[in-house]
Amino acid sequence: MNRFVSVLLGGLIAGSHVLPAFAEQPLPPKPQLIIILDDIGNNQTLGLRAVNLPAPVTLAFLPFTPFAARLAERANQQGHGIMLHAPMANESGAKLGPGALTPDMDRIHLQQTLSDSLEAIPHVQGVNNHMGSLLTQQPEAMSWVMEVLAEQDLYFVDSLTSPLSVAAENASEAGIPTVSRDVFLDNERTEESLNKQFNHALSVAKRRGHAVLIGHPYPETLSYLEQRLPTVELEGVELQRAGDYLLRQQWRTPAPELPLVSRYQLLLEPQ
Questions:
Q1: What is the mean pLDDT of the chain?
Q2: The dihedral of CA 134, 259, 197, 76: what is its sign?
């Protein structure tokens, strides 16, 4: 009698449980897709459509906008993730609005501005950058940002609006849960382009284990997501809020799926 049969029969005869080697093993986790919708707070109608999306997403709210606080409350009730979409200085000089973080600020001013913005968003769990192609290149300024996030136990998502961003590196050094954007969904808003970008994000998730997809509350984007989200898990991918994913990963930052410059080439909007 060979050893495998002998051990198995011995366990059965003794009425004991089978050895751990033969115990049922847990299934590997499904690939994770993190969908973030930026720029929430200025438009109530579109914001409510985002809040009512039929699957867990993460909504990033612009501070001090007319509907941000109320929509964040509703989003929390619906089970979505809540982020501050922190305005940060950009290379194009585009206007940032209230709560802007800029390179001319000293540490006290920058950190107080960020703290005020965080306080304005109920149930906030993390931060990502609105624009920020200039500020995210500044190691000192980003280290000040991360000090505030560390004090409040928040995570950071680098929207990766510059190939020279040091934001994720600063976050990791500060012990802050962090991940970076992989794909922008709606630089072009045709159905063909939305479908192409969404499918690209699914491919990244299946190949690497996760992907971060960032979109905006455009009518075209919301209509697409309203139709697509209910079927995502049938495609073998699990939708995750950003905070839940980072908690599961024990605050580790996986290596990027593509070279940084290649990923940056997907950017078309002003940064």
A1: 87
A2: negative
Domains identified in the chain and CATH numbers: 28-264 (3.20.20.370)
**Running DSSP on this structure, what letter comes out for residue 42?**
S
Indicate left, alpha or beta for 155 from its phi (over 0: left) and psi (-120 to 50: alpha). beta
∠208-86-79 over CA atoms, to 5°?
60
Helix (H) or strand (E) holding 246: helix 242-248
The C-alpha atoms of residue 113 and residue 17 are separated, in whole angstroms, by 60
pLDDT value at 258 more than 80: no
- What integer pLDDT is reported at residue 27 of this predicted model? 58
Query: Where does residue 244 rank: exposed (0-12), middle (13-18), buried (19+ CB within 10 A)?
Result: middle
Q: What is the model's pTM?
A: 0.84
Residue with the two structure tokens 């979505």: 80
Strands (E), 145-230: 155-158, 178-180, 183-184, 210-215
